Please model this.
Amino acid sequence: MTGATGETLLINLERRLDNTVYRSGFAKSRSQARQLVNHGHITVNGHRTSIPSYTVKANDTIAVAESSRESQYFKDVLAWAKTQTRPAWLEVDPESYTARIASDPKREQIETQVDTQLIVEHYSR
Model:
């Protein structure tokens, strides 16, 4: 990919499926989101996906699998998901347990305060 290495790294991390599930409010932590994806509770464009590192793209639709929506966990997380703020690149409808990637994330939309130059310097040794 072209562009600044550190910025590209952050954007790629933000586009991971487990991170997107977390940002959507369907999980209360990234590790919990990772487990939900691993256990097959999440679909991408209607297909079950069990790979947390799957890279989502603009216009992808992420949803909780139909069979999983009746579980007590998702009933409990619904109220919590409604209160969460979300990044501008993500459109979420908690009532239908779906999220749509409106656009690829931009660096200014990523709230993580990280000095990417230090990360790039560390890994370029």
Remarks:
- The first strand starts at residue 42 and ends at 44.
